[in-house]
Design goal:
The protein is an alpha/beta fold. It is built from 13 helices and 17 strands. Bound molecules: pyridoxal-5'-phosphate.
């Protein structure tokens, strides 16, 4: 198969006639609860380009929500998948074993922060990793309470949607929710309501609030785990200010609480470090990975201190597809690519290319209240000019304009007013520049 040309090409309107026909079939067959960012159907994808069924080449600034960091068809990953699928697709790791699962676990034990003995549990989805980390933390501590942040996103299952901060679309109508989940304020620099105005001050104030709320409302001795996303993803690419996680990790350690980093979106090179916590040198007790781990095959992992991980009795963890062998083969290849092609370096380079352009746009466009992010996890937050009032319609308009011109962007944020850029880390500079030109044109439509 020839590789699709790495260039934006528009042959029809977006969506084109063939996508529109398929969309009609979708609407009469797929449950309406599944939304779609851009109703185009993809025929092939590689590096920074998605080719739709009408032959349009779209620039991918989504990576299937931070999954295809190595691209959607990296030859080393697809070869590993084919080779494994030819041998066997499944045995169930709880029934009979295979070496590739050990290899993924060994690598994660080695690559995640912390020079102590670790164990890994493999699962299928990010939400499953979160759920299982909670099970493990509760077993280890003998405590129930889980502390999460405002603006958090941890998944769509009962427990993880409870842990998620945003009501619509994730929670509305789906209650009652799981018990023993407590939310403390996120140190969201752009929207911090406290007195502090500097990152250090916000980190300090938010930490004081966490301690105050835990001690007065929950009871420190009742808390099993504190879980944070180092860069909050669905909440709007909120970079937790430097110092915050260090303080929280120390507080957790002093109080026998398991400190969990949800690196499902931000981890594995996306922010310019292998793990987003590395930026601050924080060593969590448990690190969660998924998404980019197996380059699109469903695989997630809980990696943590051996004594904590081993506290659950045999049979307490697992799942029919947990650590599927085809997904493990893909993960080994994807981890090789991340290291061999220095994808953390690529993510830092993407920030160097994109961030100055976003800052230029902000200077030009009064509706862009904030630009932020780290590595290849970058965002613009839209507001009513001259205020900090969220303007979700502006974000929607800019995204729609870009999408119609063949640049796939995602929105995010508790107020749905953020455009987030999550390109595959292997995207070319030419595609990035072209996509930024289109975004600039899109933001000008707001004037
Ligand atoms: N945690 C974070 C930080 C995420 O971004 C996501 C998905 O977006 C999840 C958990 C849930 O992962 P999944 O959709 O694979 O269940």
């Amino acid at each position: 198969m020839t590789e699709p040309e790495q260039r934006r090409i528009l042959k029809t309107a977006i969506p084109g006639p063939l996508s529109t026909e398929l969309q009609a079939r979708r609407e009469s067959n797929i449950a309406a609860g599944f939304g779609v960012t851009l109703p185009v159907f993809i025929a092939e994808a590689s590096e920074g380009i998605l080719v739709d069924v009408d032959g349009n080449h779209l620039i991918d600034l989504a990576s299937g929500i931070a999954v295809t960091s190595v691209g959607a068809s990296h030859p080393r990953v697809t070869a590993a998948i084919r080779e494994q699928a030819d041998r066997f697709t499944h045995t169930c790791f709880m029934v009979t074993e295979y070496e590739s699962a050990l290899e993924v676990a060994e690598r994660l034990n080695r690559l995640t922060p912390g020079e102590f003995e670790k164990r890994t549990g493999l699962f299928s989805t990010g939400a499953e990793a979160v759920e299982n980390a909670v099970k493990i933390a509760r077993t280890w501590t003998g405590r129930d309470a889980i502390v999460v942040l405002g603006h958090a996103y941890h998944g769509r299952t009962l427990l993880t949607m409870t842990m998620t901060g945003k009501n619509v679309p994730y929670k509305e109508g789906f209650g009652p929710f799981a018990p023993e989940v407590y939310r403390v304020p996120s140190p969201y620099p752009y929207r911090w309501a406290g007195a502090a105005t500097t990152e250090t001050g916000i980190a300090e104030e938010a930490f004081e609030q966490l301690v105050d709320q835990i001690t007065t409302q929950v009871g420190t001795a009742n808390v099993a785990a504190i879980i944070v996303e180092p860069v909050q993803g669905e909440g709007g690419f909120i970079v937790l200010p430097e110092g915050y996680m260090t303080k929280v990790a120390q507080f957790a350690k002093e109080n026998g609480i398991v400190f969990i980093a949800d690196e499902i979106q931000a981890g594995l090179a996306r922010t310019g470090d292998l793990f987003a916590v590395d930026h601050e040198g924080v060593v969590p007790d448990i690190v969660l990975t998924a998404k980019a781990l197996a380059a699109g095959m469903p695989l997630s992992a809980v990696t943590g201190r051996a004594e904590i991980m081993d506290s659950v009795r045999a049979g307490g963890l697992g799942g029919t597809y947990a650590g599927n062998p085809v997904a493990c083969a893909a993960a080994i290849a994807a981890l090789d690519v991340i290291v061999d092609e220095d994808l953390p370096g690529r993510a830092r380079h993407i920030e160097e290319v994109v961030m100055p352009r976003l800052k230029e746009l902000q200077a030009e466009c009064a509706a862009i209240g904030d630009v932020r992010g780290r590595g290849a996890m970058l965002a613009m937050e839209f507001v009513v000019p001259g205020t900090r009032t969220p303007d979700p319609d502006a974000a929607k308009k800019v995204a729609a304009h870009a999408n119609a011109r063949g640049v796939l962007t995602l929105t995010a944020g508790t107020y749905s007013n953020v455009i987030r850029l999550l390109p595959p880390l292997v995207i070319s500079d030419d595609l990035l520049e072209d996509a930024l030109d289109v975004l600039a044109e899109a933001t000008r439509t707001l004037a």
